[in-house]
Design a protein that fits this description.
mainly alpha; two-stranded antiparallel sheet; two-stranded parallel sheet; 8 helices; 47% helix; 5% strand
Length: 243
């Protein structure tokens, strides 16, 4: 799952910018936060058992999360090497679980506010609607979320407007970028994955890691959009690298 790559973003093999001390500082693009989405994210983290302090830390990750270049290269290499196996029972189960759990999250986005939802109207269009994450927040404040076309079919999640893959994209934009204030750079996408994986059971989180973490690492390392796969990364790469 990949947004348009920011023109100012560097790949993991390009030099990072330097701060006043002369130390390398990872490139990132900050974005605005939509408070209703942030509040819903906090509530969902509470439901899945994240402690209040941890939920607060997770929801603030856009300010401090950045992906280690070496780790990004490892994840990208693993994604490119693993075959797409949509008929493998373990893969089918993981993606089925991801669809079920994503649909439950998506329902909260479009449910009326009086019923505990965000009351969003999702509109599909033929062009990419957002060049910067701030534009998502601008639309959400007006009660809409625009969805551009899918670049390619997904082996297990479809490609037509409103398909399971579209619903996953919507959840990512709202509960990832808009709730965290995370940009479309590699560090913003990494922050979204760190938080969103906590909203899912282990099997679904494994599939989500392929979709978010795997594909985005390929984009930032190679400069090219990954081909969708129905596959699971090695278990050691499905979790964040310990500090």
């Amino acid at each position: 799952m990949q947004h348009r790559r920011p023109e100012t973003e560097t790949t993991s093999n390009e030099p990072a910018t330097a701060d006043a001390s002369g130390e390398a500082e990872p490139s990132r693009s900050a974005a605005a936060v939509w408070r209703p989405a942030q509040a819903l994210l906090h509530a969902l983290l509470d439901v899945v058992g994240a402690q209040a302090a941890e939920g607060h830390r997770l929801a603030g990750l856009a300010d401090g999360a950045w992906i280690d270049p070496e780790r990004g290269e490892q994840v990208a290499a693993a994604f490119l090497a693993v075959p797409s196996t949509p008929v493998l029972p373990e893969v089918q189960q993981a993606y089925w679980q991801l669809r079920v759990e994503t649909d439950a999250l998506y329902a909260r986005l479009v449910a009326p506010r009086e019923d505990g939802g965000l009351g969003l109207v999702v509109r599909h269009q033929l062009t990419d609607p957002y060049q910067q994450a701030e534009e998502i927040v601008d639309d959400l404040a007006s009660g809409i979320l625009r969805m551009g076309p899918n670049r390619q079919p997904h082996p297990l999640m479809g490609s037509n407007p409103g398909c399971p893959y579209d619903r996953l994209r919507a959840v990512h934009d709202v509960l990832g970028h808009a709730a965290l204030g995370a940009g479309f750079d590699r560090h913003g996408e990494y922050a979204c994955w760190l938080v969103q994986r906590r909203l899912h059971a282990p099997a679904a989180a494994a599939a989500l890691t392929t979709e978010l973490h795997g594909e985005n690492c390929v984009l930032w390392v190679t400069g090219r959009h990954a081909v969708h796969k129905a596959a699971l990364l090695p278990p050691s790469l499905r979790i964040p690298r310990p500090p």
